[in-house]
Amino acid sequence: MNICDFDGLTGRVITSDDPYYEELRQVYNRAVNKFPLAIVYCQKETDVSNAVLWSRSHHVSLRIRNGGHNYEGYSTGNDILAIDLSEMNQISIDETANLLTVQGGAKNRQVYEFVSSMGYPFPGGTCPSVGVSGYALGGGWGLSCRYLGLGCDCLTQLRMINYEGTALTASPTENPDLFWALRGGGGGNFGIIVSMTFRLPGKVDKITLIDIRYPDSDQEKQSAFVQIWQDWLTDTDPRITLVSRIFNSREDGLGILARGFFYGPPEAALGIIQPLLRLGGVKYTLKYLPFLEAVNIIGSFYPPYEAFQSTSRFVLRDLTDCESCRLAAMIADRPQGSSYAALSFYALGGKVSQVDPEATAFYYRNAKYILWLNTVFDGCKCDNSAWIADRFCYLQTITEGAYVNFPYDALPRCHEEYYGSNACRLKMVKERYDPLNIFSFPQGIGSKICC
Asked: Residues near 303 by Cβ (< 8 Å), separated by ≥ 6?
């Protein structure tokens, strides 16, 4: 396409002729290797509207990107217009109304730094470079969710550019069906979010950062930990949220770890986590820190990018001893070219389960935890999809559904898997607010691929 054909786009436009194109087209997961026709960095709402109208008039598909963390690369594509909101990242607080407003391109790190400077926590995600918009629209699991709720539960209003380039407001009183859908219905399905308003939690001074490790493990110990984990999680204190993991690392071998937040002092945290310390060889630390320090330590464990493949499921019942053994056996052998393989368990319950499954589009309120299987490999040319697919077949037999923020490209009947019985209602909202399916991508609600 001739450069003149980009007339009508406003903001900062990057094409393949730009010296920074090769760097800027990359997303977090380097297993994804796509070449957009252009990337437009929007700086105001009119830039977003113009991008939508340009894509329609030139019959070029669009994708929405701010953090670039969609695990299957749905925030980019070949020969598409990538609408990047990362330069729309202003944040403000109304302490009188107890509300936080962020533009659609803000990332976890930016929000954490802003709210912490005023004494507040925020129910955001663990990775600092994840875009808050995609995070919250997919539900929004984070290390505060059992105490403060999911990210989507704290939303009070959103502003969205629709398929006509027009700004709409979604709230309990304005376009309430869209407001329902945007809280858990996944990013990129209905329009482009340019602003979000969240209800602020109460101020906190410090929280306890928990780090538990079993560095020298074997399959038997990993299996035993899964059993201990699920028993512990059943009725544990809602002020604590942990992500636990059994892993197989080229560098460290088999291991177990658990990290998370407790909204209280270390002495109380120690009593709560005692069951998780029962296996031999445990090492743990409890640090009483300002909220920002705790999230920064968690964020420091994430590399700037990596190449990986993964799949997710929801666990709704207690697993048997035999099933836990099968899980541990899954990662006993890493696939070719892989430096790391793991099963992670993201705790649910607490405040998450206090919301009706049909009150928002996030359906799996009654799940005990999210299970995530992933493998990290060297470089972008490895393909571990067969390894994932083989293990996914077994995971399907003991779990239900999948977390839309941890998508799996080979997921059958993906709409029902991601949204449960809310899928039909989401499709109706899609037909009303995006009747031409302008906001389309693989596994998008308008897609017929996995229905």
From this structure: none
Give φ, ψ of 421 to 5 degrees.
Answer: -75, -5
Where are the chain's structural domains? Answer: 3-84, 91-203, 207-398
Instruction: Kindly list the strands in the beta sheet with 155-161, ordered across the sheet, starting from the edge strand earlier in the chain.
Output: 91-94, 99-103, 192-199, 155-161, 167-170
d(CA 58, CA 78): 15
pLDDT digit string, tens, across residues 308-351: 999 999 999 999 999 999 999 999 999 999 999 999 999 999 99
Q: Is 50 exceeded by the pLDDT of residue 302?
A: yes
Q: Which residues pair with 84 in a beta bridge?
A: 41, 65
Q: Give residue for tokens 């590399």.
A: 303
Spatial contact of 165 and 53, defined as CB atoms under 8 Å apart: yes
Judge whether 342 and 246 are in contact, CB under 8 Å.
Answer: yes
| pTM: predicted TM-score of the whole model, two decimal places | 0.96
Residue type, 151: G
* 188-195 average pLDDT score: 98
For tokens 């890493």, the residue is 334
Q: How far apart are CA 365 and CA 298, in angstroms?
A: 25
Residue 247: other Cβ atoms inside 10 A: 21
Cα–Cα distance measured from residue 351 to residue 113, given in angstroms and rounded to the nearest whole number: 24
Give tens-digit pLDDT for 251-272. Answer: 999 999 999 999 999 999 999 9
| Options 3.30.465.10, 3.40.50.2000, 3.30.300.160, 3.40.50.740; CATH of 91-203 | 3.30.465.10
What torsion do the CA atoms of 230, 231, 236, 240 make, to the nearest 10 degrees?
Answer: -30
